[in-house]
Amino acid sequence: MSTRLSEPGTITNAMTVDVEDYFQVAAFEKCIRREDWPRWPVRVEANTRRVLELFGRYRISATFFVLGWVAERFPALVRDIGAAGHEIASHGFGHERLTNITRDQFREGVTRTKHLLEDISGTAVYGYRAPSYSIGPTTLWAHDELREAGYRYSSSIVPIHHDLYGMPSAPRFAFFTGRAGVLEVPVTTVRLWGRNWPCGGGGYFRLLPYAMFRRGLRRVNRQDRSSGVFYFHPWEVDPEQPRVPGVTLKNRVRHYINLKRTAPRVERLLGDFRFDRMDRVFLAPGRADYPVVSLQTAEYRVQ
Ligand SMILES: [Zn+2]
């Protein structure tokens, strides 16, 4: 019997969704002012419900990193995510990249969002994901603030080079941050030809052939013997979303390419691998043997 296809193995990966709307992404921040957000047609509620329906069909539980801005407007959506057996986690309040705000503003945002999500869902919120994976060399204080605010884990670092984010020197797999003791679970990369390549979702998942992506995640499960972390956004399953004018070609490609392929590809992924919530995959008893790593803050030369 061939085992080439659909060989789940024993390793369970984490499925995650960053719950935000299409007009809140970093790629559009130069075209859409924050104060104009309320003018754009909201699609996040209907799109997140599509995702819930899809996960329901495959009977998988996932982690939803919900933006406080969304939770405040759609509390019933947050309750329904929790009622369907998924983990409610925090994506901060207003989707500001950490590199663009002060430490005080960060603290206020993650605290406010945690309380908001807990009040709505009636469950404790332990997980956090930074907008645009913006925990990096200049924002490592974030882990201390997360611990102070009561978070237990973060999934906010991508150990690759990228124009908007990335910390190539960070570990590829889960580790306790040295000072804060918060568990950081980097988004999945695959190690090939001496460097890390993205294998966690987002634009790459729509751009690259699915078979290539599957090979990468299999490699992580079989050779690294590690769980992967996959992510996508509700706006990625919405090819009909309004087009934002004035966007650069690069950002247009990044945001709009192959949107119609996301949902069918996620379905293939759900058929090819095992998935569960972040907390069950990474915080389960008996899984506390992660290394402790102190990340180095970037040094700056004063000119
Ligand atoms: Zn986001």
Describe this structure as you would to a colleague:
This protein is an alpha/beta fold and 303 residues long. The protein has a single domain (12-293), classed as Glycoside hydrolase/deacetylase (TIM Barrel, Alpha-Beta Barrel). The protein contains ten helices and twelve strands. The strands form three sheets. Strands 1, 2, 3, 10 and 11 form a five-stranded parallel beta sheet that branches. Strands 4-5-7-6-12 form a five-stranded mixed beta sheet, with helices on one face. A two-stranded antiparallel ribbon has the order 8-9. The termini are far apart. 45% of the residues are buried. Mean pLDDT is 90; it is low at 1-6 and 299-303.
